[in-house]
TrEMBL record:
Segments for region (Disordered): 113-137
Name this polypeptide is given: Small ribosomal subunit protein bS6
Function text: Binds together with bS18 to 16S ribosomal RNA.
Cited HAMAP family: Ribosomal_bS6
NCBIfam families listed in its UniProt record: S6
Source organism of this protein record: Campylobacter gracilis RM3268
Gene name of the record: rpsF
Length: 137
């Protein structure tokens, strides 16, 4: 099984019950096709970067799950035909580094910024004018 994340945006005009139904629909697709849901995170209503159809806002959800690759095509097919989901994005986590990030994100732990590979250089002290002149000769 591989690690995945699906982010989707639901129309803001839906009631809370309708939104919950859409989230349950996506979760059901994942579980019926052999996937294991690690967590579901509601990010809330947010302003979109640009208008999608006639909507300027949307309700964001992220689902972290483990599944076989064959499940993704079925999930994408169902998300495309669902009119109440206006956008979606599926991400696959492959490398060890990405999988450890997936573990943290699925538990709700924020990732820390990447650390620099090398140590910072020691500060260089300014030379006296006489020493600088001798080196230049």
């Amino acid at each position: 099984m591989r690690n995945y994340e699906v982010l989707f945006i639901v129309k803001p005009t839906l009631t809370d019950d309708e939104v919950k139904t859409k989230v349950d629909f996506v979760k059901e697709i994942i579980t019926k096709n052999g996937g294991e849901i690690a967590s579901v995170i509601e990010m809330g209503a947010r302003k979109l970067a640009y208008k999608i159809d006639k909507y300027e806002r949307g309700v964001y959800f992220v689902i972290y799950f483990k599944a076989e690759p064959s499940l993704i095509s079925e999930l994408v097919r169902n998300l495309r035909i669902t009119e109440d989901i206006i956008r979606f994005l599926t991400v696959k986590y492959e490398t060890k580094r990405e999988i450890s990030a997936w573990d943290k994100l699925s538990k709700g732990i924020k990732l820390s910024p990447a650390k620099k590979e090398r140590e910072p250089k020691a500060p260089v002290e300014p030379k006296e004018p006489e020493e600088a002149a001798k080196e230049g000769e």
